[in-house]
Design goal:
Elements (H helix, E strand, L loop, with lengths): L3 H21 L9 H36 L3 H22 L9 H30 L2 H16 L13 H22 L5
Bound molecules: fe (ii) ion (2 copies).
Length: about 190
């Protein structure tokens, strides 16, 4: 079974792949191709969905584990959750914008830089410290919770919801269900 590092690592790889793909096909390069612009909007939608689910389950399960197990876990988690909140505001501004709208490419460029930095912070500053203190059983259990949690996690950023695990547990399912209903109605995130 996949442990916490494999589960989060897979998500990080996928997000980095999406960012590289978006970077390669900036809408400025193809301003007049409607299908390209539609595809770009769709790719950003998928990025927002993936990123929202990922950060939501990190908040719910990963950061509490870091705070509990890692000696300077509180500091590391505060720093990372701050980065995640800032990114949610950027993604929330991107939500609903079209690639031809003013600010779209600027917001995406900002998210790309911040998102990569955030992933590196987690993988370089946090993971090695957690690896030292977490047992194999705990790492697997945490991986299972993250995988399960992603199935019902919110698909939008919700920057105004406090990033506290308890809040997500109580408000999360209703918010996530509302997100998914809206996604179904608008065809968001679907082929
Ligand atoms: Fe994160
Ligand atoms: Fe992450």
């Amino acid at each position: 079974m996949a442990d916490v590092f494999e589960v989060l690592g897979r998500d990080h790889t996928e997000v980095k792949r999406m960012l590289a793909e978006l970077e390669a096909g900036s809408s400025r390069a193809v301003p007049d191709r409607e299908d390209r612009l539609r595809l770009r909007k769709k790719m950003v939608e998928e990025l927002i969905i993936e990123e929202s689910k990922h950060e939501a389950v990190e908040e719910e399960y990963f950061w509490p584990a870091v705070r509990r197990l890692v000696p300077d876990g509180e500091l590391l988690a505060d720093e990372a959750v701050g980065q995640e909140q800032a990114a949610k505001h950027v993604l929330n501004d991107l939500l609903g914008k079209d690639p031809t709208d003013g600010g779209f490419e600027e917001l995406l460029t900002r998210f790309t830089a911040d998102g990569r930095e955030h992933i590196e912070f987690e993988e370089v500053q946090v993971w090695p410290k957690l690896r030292v203190v977490i047992t194999a059983d705990e790492a697997e259990e945490l991986g299972r919770k993250l995988e399960q949690g992603k199935k019902t996690a919110p698909t939008r950023p919700h920057p105004h919801t406090p990033p506290k695990p308890g809040v997500l547990r109580s408000a999360g399912p209703a918010v996530a269900a509302a997100d998914r209903l809206r996604d179904r109605m608008t065809g968001r995130g679907q082929e």
